[in-house]
Amino acid sequence: MSGKGKKTVFTLLALLGAVIFLAGTSLADTCVTSKCHSGMGKADYVHGPVGAGQCVVCHTKGVKGHPTKHPERDFKFPAKGKALCYMCHQNKETEEFVHTPVGKGQCVACHDPHQSNAPKQLKADTVSALCFKCHENNKTVKKYVHGPVASGDCIVCHNPHTSPYKFQLEAQGDELCFLCHEDRKAEFTRKYVHKPAKENCLNCHDPHNTDYQFHLKAEGKNLCFRCHKKIAKWVSEATYQHGALQKGTCTTCHTPHSSNYPRQLKMAAKDICYSCHTEMGKKVRTSKYLHGPVQQNDCYACHNPHGSKNPKILKKYFPAEFYKPYKTDNYALCFGCHNKDIALDRITTRLTNFRNGDINLHYVHVNKKKGRSCKACHEVHAGNQPKHIRREVPFGKMWMLPVKYTKTETGGKCNVGCHKPKAYDRKKPVENK
Ligand code: HEC
Ligand code: HEC
Ligand code: HEC
Ligand code: HEC
Ligand code: HEC
Ligand code: HEC
Ligand code: HEC
Ligand code: HEC
Ligand code: HEC
Ligand code: HEC
Ligand code: HEC
Ligand code: HEC
Ligand code: HEC
To answer: What is the mean pLDDT of residues 111-136?
Structure first.
């Protein structure tokens, strides 16, 4: 109620008191005169019965010696502590959570029983100043103070007396936040809701004040690492960090609240990597042949977006070099999906189609001290020749060797810078000169 409204009530009650007095019932008292208690009723907000001059409702007369220097000793209260107040006000202590001073009956620790210059006869100028009379102020001291806290409105969230919810809150969990952030609700109703956001906003946000933007309990990655310990360990132990995480944070790719895409990704898996790796995106979109997992937009089959022990944030080892002494383990990445024996035996009729008759050409190229890496011939992402044979092969740092590959029904032909044009045929072995 506004101060003006208060005064109207006061006036009405005063008027009522005056009428009763004039009628001679003497219920009203003459405690307030120019000599005695003259300040009563002069403050901005006056308690109803005080305004009506009904001192005797609370100060029962009849004890000797008034006036004295200690008038309160001469008057009895008809009831003690909060029971006095509950004579006229509703007792809501049936609610589960009762603010301690209310439970203890200390109504007058917060309210002046007579009058005050603050609404509701509060004993401090602002609500928060009242709260901080008893509570240590660790709520408005950090860098970012939440809107309603900054404006001293503790009681929009906390009932000063009682509530069905812990901390005498006005609503439970997320509902409390949505009392004001109604416009954000849609952000939490997408298909995939982050579990902690479903549970409680306070898992990440502080309701009062923090040192971090958006009232978060920690900054950047550290917020996520509070719960995602495995990823924290992974990231800290990764020899090769993903640039996206070095320069950005987890929310560069994930939404903290909810998403329409699995894993709370900000966009569809098929777009997320290309949103930064535009060259790669262009290459994939304009290529005729896409490698199986790339076709499926499954970049994570080979790369770990959170970093790795392997170069190029690869999930398994793959040599960066063009030449590498052969070891099956060197191609662990490829052999996670492909037959690991393709380069094992020199003579074969079944391990691979890259054969001239029964001579295994994978063996010939790959399985030696100065073996060629798969990427000497194959694109790993996309390309324009069958079997993902690349158009150019990097040789040294500067030079690109062109490769022209023609596939036939039973073999193929290579026109490369490495050697003279050569062909192979599985049915009728070719004699290359
Ligand atoms: C709603 C109950 C209530 C009414 C009505 C009321 N009082 Fe009081 N009064 C109290 C209470 C409770 C205390 C003790 C306050 C405390 O312990 O802080 C008190 C204390 C006092 C005191 C002593 C302490 C002080 O604040 O100076 C005086 C004097 C006093 N009242 C005068 C009056 C007069 C005069 C009126 C009428 C104009 C009046 N009261 C009406 C409840 C009331
Ligand atoms: C004799 C009845 C009576 C007693 C006893 C009484 N009150 Fe009141 N109180 C009223 C009336 C009447 C009003 C004015 C009604 C209104 O504004 O809604 C009022 C108003 C108030 C208000 C302001 C409410 C508002 O909405 O602005 C507060 C705070 C308050 N009382 C606290 C107390 C406290 C604390 C005590 C005990 C120390 C107490 N009251 C004892 C009758 C009483
Ligand atoms: C910790 C401080 C505190 C204590 C203790 C306290 N109040 Fe209040 N009370 C407030 C505040 C703050 C408001 C203002 C609420 C608002 O503006 O919505 C208030 C409002 C009121 C009102 C106005 C109506 C309402 O409910 O909003 C009444 C009546 C009231 N209190 C009575 C009491 C009584 C009776 C007691 C003791 C049983 C008591 N208060 C104890 C802080 C307190
Ligand atoms: C007269 C002293 C006093 C005032 C004024 C006061 N409180 Fe309290 N409050 C206490 C005490 C005592 C406790 C219980 C001890 C504790 O947990 O700190 C308490 C507990 C609380 C709790 C629950 C804390 C918990 O850990 O369970 C909240 C929330 C709270 N107060 C909020 C407020 C708000 C908001 C205000 C201002 C409207 C306020 N208090 C004003 C004395 C006070
Ligand atoms: C936006 C709503 C909101 C506002 C405004 C707010 N609080 Fe709180 N407060 C909460 C919530 C939610 C909790 C429970 C925190 C938790 O569960 O960790 C809480 C907890 C508390 C506690 C108990 C735990 C603690 O942190 O000490 C106190 C005391 C408290 N608030 C006092 C205040 C005071 C004083 C103000 C005003 C300066 C205030 N609050 C303003 C929402 C709010
Ligand atoms: C009483 C209204 C109210 C309640 C309840 C409330 N807020 Fe706020 N909140 C505000 C206001 C006002 C702002 C400041 C306006 C702004 O910056 O958009 C704000 C700002 C924020 C911001 C920062 C927004 C930004 O863009 O910087 C976050 C985060 C936030 N609130 C989270 C919460 C959470 C979590 C809860 C529940 C614990 C909550 N709020 C409850 C009123 C409220
Ligand atoms: C898992 C942690 C987490 C949880 C739980 C969480 N948030 Fe957030 N929230 C964030 C982060 C991180 C941001 C910063 C925005 C960003 O990086 O996209 C944020 C930002 C916000 C903002 C400001 C957004 C803006 O862009 O201005 C509001 C408002 C907000 N959160 C409200 C809520 C509400 C309401 C809840 C509970 C329903 C909630 N949050 C739960 C982590 C969380
Ligand atoms: C309060 C703890 C907590 C915080 C803080 C937190 N998370 Fe989570 N997160 C979880 C829980 C719990 C799950 C669900 C795990 C499950 O279902 O196995 C989850 C799941 C996820 C998932 C996987 C969803 C899926 O579909 O598998 C992603 C991605 C994620 N969080 C990212 C983040 C990011 C990014 C942040 C920081 C902005 C963050 N989390 C902060 C607790 C948290
Ligand atoms: C470059 C984009 C990107 C960044 C940055 C990123 N993630 Fe992810 N994250 C992904 C992708 C993509 C997936 C899905 C991978 C999959 O499905 O195999 C994922 C999956 C997850 C998962 C669920 C699967 C799992 O591995 O448990 C969690 C949890 C997760 N991320 C947390 C985080 C955290 C925490 C950070 C910050 C340290 C972070 N992410 C940074 C892209 C990213
Ligand atoms: C927010 C931008 C961003 C997103 C999204 C992103 N990256 Fe990156 N990525 C980078 C940056 C920056 C580097 C550091 C190297 C650079 O500048 O190219 C990098 C490096 C890499 C590297 C290693 C390159 C090298 O030379 O070591 C690979 C592989 C990679 N990203 C794959 C991915 C995959 C897969 C995804 C999708 C899950 C993805 N990236 C999403 C920004 C991003
Ligand atoms: C079959 C495994 C595999 C898949 C699937 C895969 N990559 Fe790669 N990626 C690699 C290998 C191996 C390298 C290292 C190539 C090299 O050393 O020349 C690499 C390198 C990269 C690089 C660094 C390029 C450079 O020139 O250094 C980026 C960026 C990249 N990949 C992004 C992606 C994106 C985006 C996807 C999903 C469309 C994806 N990768 C899918 C295996 C894969
Ligand atoms: C995540 C599984 C996976 C990984 C890892 C993988 N591939 Fe593949 N690869 C496939 C799938 C699926 C196909 C498509 C098979 C088909 O169309 O029959 C394919 C096709 C190929 C083809 C063409 C085969 C054909 O018959 O058309 C070549 C060549 C190839 N991959 C090479 C590689 C190399 C080199 C690596 C390591 C850098 C690698 N792959 C890693 C899944 C994978
Ligand atoms: C000297 C070039 C060259 C190198 C090096 C090479 N390949 Fe191939 N690979 C080919 C050719 C050519 C084919 C096509 C055979 C056909 O179908 O006629 C092929 C076919 C394949 C196929 C399809 C299945 C098959 O065996 O016919 C896979 C899978 C494959 N290669 C994986 C690899 C892997 C993994 C490596 C590295 C360990 C590798 N290749 C190294 C040239 C090469």
So the answer is: 97
